[in-house]
Amino acid sequence: MTWDAALLWRRQLRGPLVFTNGCFDVLHPGHVIYLEAARSLGVALVVGLNADDSVKRLKGPSRPVQSGADRARVLAGLAAVDGVVTFDQDTPMALIEWLQPDIHVKGGDYQVDTLPETPVVRAYGGQVMVVPFVDGHGTTGIINRIKGQHG
User: Looking at the domain assignment, is residue 82 inside a domain?
Assistant: First the structure.
């Protein structure tokens, strides 16, 4: 969904909008559990998806493994996800300011007080929440296992 379409949809929504973001390059059970936990906090969940160039800058030249269109399609097919919006920046800050979700969610490997998005979300009256991290699941580990590497 485009930024404009997401904003229009958001304005018609009755109840808390939850937002999270990430690369979601190789979807795994940890992602699904995380997205379900985020969705349980409101009436709808929008996922901000890093565009391909952004993933490459953040994760390195061999990423993303899947194209942005493929990653968006897989996310959109999950029951917990109500919408997917792609952003080109390295952080979701502009998209968060645009949508002004009621709740911004990150995984347990983050801390609310150190997230750069926290002041932005709090400035318009939103909440920032952290849901527990799911141990044993990570994209880098999966990619390394596929390549026959361990660690």
Answer: no
Q: What is the pLDDT of residues 113-138, one digit of tens each?
A: 999 999 999 999 999 999 987 665 55
CA 117 to chain CA centroid, nearest Å: 13
Instruction: Report the residue count for the chain.
Output: 151
Q: pLDDT tens for residues 12-51?
A: 999 999 999 999 988 888 889 999 999 999 999 999 999 9
Query: What is the 8-class DSSP label of residue 133?
Result: P
Structural domain for 128, as ranges: 3-16+29-42+90-146
Token readout for 111 is 């801390």
Report residue 82's pLDDT band, with 50, 70 and 90 as the boundaries: very high
Q: In the 3-class helix/strand/coil scheme, how is 71-121 assigned residue by residue?
A: HHHHHHCCCCCCEEEEECCCCCHHHHHHHCCCEEEEECCCCHHHCCCHHHH
Query: Taking residues 99-121, what's their average pLDDT?
Result: 93
User: Tell me, what's the pLDDT at 108?
Assistant: 78
- Whether 131 maps to a domain, the answer reads yes
132 close to 108: Cβ distance less than 8 angstroms: yes
- H or E, element range at 127: strand 127-131
